[in-house]
Amino acid sequence: PAGLTATAGNGAITQGTYDATTGLFDIGTLNIGETATLTIEGTVDVGEGGNAITNITTAASGDQPDPTTDGDDLDESVVVDANADLVTVKRLVSGNPTPVEGDVVTFEIEVTNNGTAQATNVSLTDLLPAGLTATAGNGAVTQGTYDAATGLFDIGTLNVGETATLTIEGTVDVGEGGNAITNITTAATGDQPDPTTAGDDLDESVAVNPTPVIIADLAIAKSIVGEPVLTELGNYVVTYQLVVENTGTVDLDDLSLLEDLSTQFGSAFVDAGNLVLVTPPSDAGSSIDLNSATWNGSTSIEIIDTTGGRLLTTGDSFVAQFAVEIDPRAVTDPLENQVAGSGSGVDSNGNPILDSTGNPVTADDVSDSGTDPGSSNPGDPADQGTSDDPTPFDPPPVPTGEITGTVFQDDNDDGVQQAGEGGIAGVEITLTGTDIFGNPVEMTVLTDANGDYTFDGLNAGNYSVTQTQPDGFDDGIDIGDPSFTADNDAFSNIQLGFGQSFASNTFAERLQGASGNPPRIQGLPPISISPLANLLNGFAGSPGPIYSGVPINGNANPLSLDSGRAVTGGYAAIPEGDCCAAEPVVEPCCEPVEPCCEPVDPCGEAMPYQENLVQQAVEMPTDEMVVAPALLEEESVIMDQQECCEPIPVDQCCEPIGDDCVREPGFLKRFSNWLLFR
User: What is the percentage of the chain residues whose pLDDT exceeds 90?
Assistant: First the structure.
């Protein structure tokens, strides 16, 4: 029927054919009890609201007579709803319900057809309220026309589900501070009835804040965070922190932060960098970018990137940090430092705020030592009672290094000082090298009573430590830090850092001529020289001292015994080729019980051992006793590569006479051919 537009389902049949143009439904043959169906379907046309749409069909006919029309229902009608439910809603889209003078206030009015019928000749009235001055955006519409003079918003036809929008916008007038500005619209109407006003919101208000006191204020706090870090070059890297806050009543744009470290620190300034924004501003309206790429503190280069964001809104803040390298050797007094900052006041639209003379309102500040830009930081160590106290830095002393070690007598020649291996005093140790600043360094010390030496107070650098070989000793194994280069009596390539310590760098020494065992007999007290010389002559069977390497100090003059030949084997002390020429000497308090040593070829005839012992004991004063261990060992005694005597165990050789004569077990072991003076 008219008023409907066919859909895709129009003309659907269960049997036969249908011609939508003529309306003919040709069913064909229909058996008894069968049913054939035709579907007529269309969409109600726009403008049919309030109309009745009737669909009429003819009665079905065929070749056979139809005796009755009973049961036929040949027409059906619908009445199209004519209601247009127009919903009118006003909203504040500028967001701020409490604007100030000069702010832009924007209202938006939306009209939506939520009804079932097309609405025609739709309109409403909405005037810009008093207290606002229209902007260029006032009266903007998405459909129809708007007359700002009368406030008429002529929408025209509004189909079902469609929305038309009107914008009412203006700037808050001067003098409106403290007033409420309300925008009221009439409800939209049209030709069709609107059955309800549900959903309509026809007014919206803003409360204008009183005219604010314009204060442009910037506050900066500066502090040192963490501990200064010492570099390999002996400089300190110090991390400074800036807390910058807008403490005024207006936003600040064109923010500036200047940090001229080269001027403030003078020759102590080395470098600066690592500028980072630790905590960005929290307000979405703020925008701060740092000049991290080019700022180095050497000149008045902006910390803030002048090509990026430089806006800090009222009450907002940010935290930045940067590192400065400082030469502590150029510092005589604590280094004081301040950052200078500034900004220009702007309104909420970013426009400059001018004072009564027409000049821009600006803010500036120099940093105060501390972490709170909103106070004078009374608890800060550098507080001087003002809000602009400089931030001081007093470099700690640069830590120095040391190299220590020991010179000792290495009895077992393993390079490691062990119990009983005493230090050698008075040995000259020299340190040479160049410190990290290019200064030549040369120091000489003598080892102390324990054989220890120390070089302290050293700057970082490259050094060598050299020992002057002590008299009476042969060079042993020198052991230093694994990083050193070890040479004979020297350690070189010592790379010492600031505050670094290298300890236990030892020079081991062997008693001269004592290449076998034992290397040395400790603790020789003063003796008289003349009786000793006579005794030695008789003992050796030839004139002159017989042994080298044991310094014998008298009460006044030192005495050294030198052998006339090289000492080899088991410390031979008897002249070559005459191993039995000397008479052994023992302490008189030890009485022999049988010969302790029977000479064998080529030693010659055996001598009465007991007689020689007694003879020597009688001839010597007790305070000048000299003992020649009587070749008493459980092993064969090697003398100049010759086996001279068959050993007899010590406990079979002598019997002690008094307690003061008893020696500790093994005292004579491996002491063959040595002289013990006491």
Answer: 65
- Asked if 214 contacts 285 with a C-beta cutoff of 8 angstroms, the reply is no
Each residue's pLDDT tens digit, 542-597? 333 333 333 433 333 343 444 333 333 333 333 444 433 334 444 444 455 444 44
| Long-range pairs for 530-537: beta carbons < 8 A, 24 or more residues apart | 531/620, 531/621, 531/624, 532/559, 532/624, 532/626, 532/677, 535/585, 535/620, 535/626, 536/561, 536/626, 536/675
Among 541, 616, 622, CA closest to 577: 541
**Whole-model pTM above 0.85?**
no
Residue 406 corresponds to which tokens in the numbers above?
């020991």
Is the distance from CB of 165 to CB of 56 less than 8 angstroms? no
Q: What's the pLDDT tens digit per position in 253-301?
A: 999 999 889 899 999 999 999 999 999 999 999 999 999 999 999 877 8
Q: Which of 231, 105, 214 is nearest to 169 (CA)?
A: 105
Phi, psi dihedral angles at 377 (to 5 degrees): 50, 60
Distances (CA, A) of 630 to 519, 576, 597, 670: 19, 18, 7, 11
User: How does residue 210 score in pLDDT terms, banded at 50, 70 and 90?
Assistant: confident
Going by their DSSP bridges, the two strands 501-511 and 401-409 should be labelled as: parallel
Q: Which amino acid is at 117?
A: A
Question: What is the C-alpha to C-alpha distance for residues 409 and 420, in angstroms, rounded to an integer?
Answer: 9
Which residues touch 430 (CB under 8 Å, ≥6 apart)? 442, 443, 444, 465, 466, 467, 468
